[in-house]
Amino acid sequence: MMLEKKRILSCENLWIGYDNKPIVKDFNLEIYEGDYITVIGENGVGKSTLIKTILGLLTPISGRVIKDMKGKGGIGYLPQQTRVQRDFPASVYEVVISGFLNRANKRPFYSLAEKKEAMKNMDLLRILDLKNKCYRELSGGQQQRVLLARALCASNHFLVLDEPVSGLDPEAAKDLYSNLKEINEKRNMAILMISHDIQNALVQADKVLHMKKDSWYLELGGKKDETFI
């Protein structure tokens, strides 16, 4: 008997944009444990605006985002890196464990459990041997795995990624996709990922959210889900 998946986030009748001017209208989406959703579409159709709204960085014009992740941490976010961020002068361990900052409730220290989890996440991403290395000395692929380990410290239930393989060579991108699939399947973590890498996006995800100007639709395993149109 298959257990029913728990819903962790809902977007209900969202109108989102800037200065009260909507980019996306009447948007509805439900995200469940273990979902792997890739968001694709041309620039300017509202992909990043949607992500910012889900993260709580942008207030919707109307509608609401409902989060049901009590006791499960918040949302682990892997944004696109700037040049300044790539040159951050901290150790790998310091970057990874900083993912707990929003979960620390203003504590001036990290708990033993958090330290152990940080080590576990680094081991999962195969960067444990780099823990004392300076972050800015790493390759692009290694930096992305460090940031992914940090995102896992921020949440044990839901990851949001914005173009995670942008700027990576094919081999590093392949490794990162493998990491994401392992996290999705072994930890039952929901993943929502913006990507222009359509070929791999279609292979990786079990759901694909197509966003266009003034419209959008969701595909489930290659089949359009008519309930969300």
TrEMBL record:
Chain segments annotated as transmembrane: none
Q: Which PROSITE patterns match?
A: ABC_TRANSPORTER_1, ABC_TRANSPORTER_2
Query: What keywords appear on the UniProt entry?
Result: ATP-binding, Nucleotide-binding, Transport
* Residues in ABC transporter domain copies: 9-229
Keyword DNA damage, does the record have it? no
- The highest taxon in the source lineage is Bacteria
Entry-linked Pfam families? ABC_tran (PF00005)
**What's an example of a GO molecular-function annotation for this chain?**
ATP hydrolysis activity
- Keyword Transport in record: yes
**So what family is this one in?**
Belongs to the ABC transporter superfamily.
The name this protein carries in UniProt is ATP-binding cassette domain-containing protein
* Species for this entry: Candidatus Galacturonatibacter soehngenii
